Fold this sequence. Notes:
Blueprint (H helix, E strand, L loop, with lengths): L2 E3 L8 E4 L2 E4 L8 E7 L8 H4 L8 E7 L2 H9 L5 E5 H9 L4 E10 L1 E5 L15 E5 L5 H12 L4 H4 L1 E5 L1 H9 L5 E5 L2 H5 L6 E5 H9 L8 E6 H6 L1 H20 L1 H12 L3 H7 L4 E6 H18 L17
Helix pairs in contact: 10-11
Amino acid sequence: MKKQVVPLVFLIIALFFSGCKSTSIKEDPEAELSLINPMGPLVLPLSGFLSGEVQSEPAVRVHYWKTIDEAVGYLSKDETAFVVLPVTVAANLKASGIDLVMLGAHEWKVFYLIASPAKNFEDICSLKGETVYTPEAKGQTVDTLTRYALGLCGLDPDKDVDFVYLPPQEIVALFKEGKVPFAALPEPFVSLALVDGAGEVVLDYQDYWSEQTGTADGIPIAGLFVSHPFYEARPELAADMANLMDQSIKWMEQHPREAIQYSSEVISMPEKILQEALPRMKFEFIRASDCKQPVIDFLTEMRAVFPEGIKAIPTDDFFAIE
């Protein structure tokens, strides 16, 4: 797993006023906080930190995780205070006894279904009898969304559709070779797969979700979480970290070119691909108190169609109170 220590610039707390920066963490400046973040599109919201435009004290050590097992390893050993996770994963970890508090959701749009040129896609129901490739393992977010959509068609996902789970990079390679009929992927892997007209986007999962539920913001895909003991001991520090994430995302929105440049160096993705992917992604930090209901609604809908994918609907103590 790749680790990166960002000295005094990455993921620290900042307040902006009168065009100047000043720190807001009331903590021993020699102390160190820890954040774990997925290696992938969720590096983009951190570009304000990567650029050095959002900074203060104390320093924060950042680890990038590639698998849920890696993230769980850090959490179970109490090696981190802050973690960025898919909302479904965080809810399941909470139900499993890893006590997390949601500070906010900040990834709202990233998932798409793509089809090879040889395939004719009418709607999600037309996937009956087809094969869908999707990352990693059963139960990850886009897999659950696909199963949810198939269930609304009256289809049994485990009988009517053949799911194949592989690392996203491998799915992309096979798709370019014409060996994958359909793939349910996050950006920027969608843009990477579609280079040179290898296929097309046939379903925007976020638009589909909005049509089915009447919501307008998209899907609360991932967010910023903190360990419950840390939150109880230092709620003001947790609130500062949430403020910092918000400001980093706003910097990304105002400086997309620079955000892509800094992020591409971390995730080893060509800048051109990230430029194509960014319009199909939505990042906005919405605090837990404001996104509580959308999160509960999302998890409830997922559990109704795919109960083994969501162990339990979280209660009030899952959400930070401001």
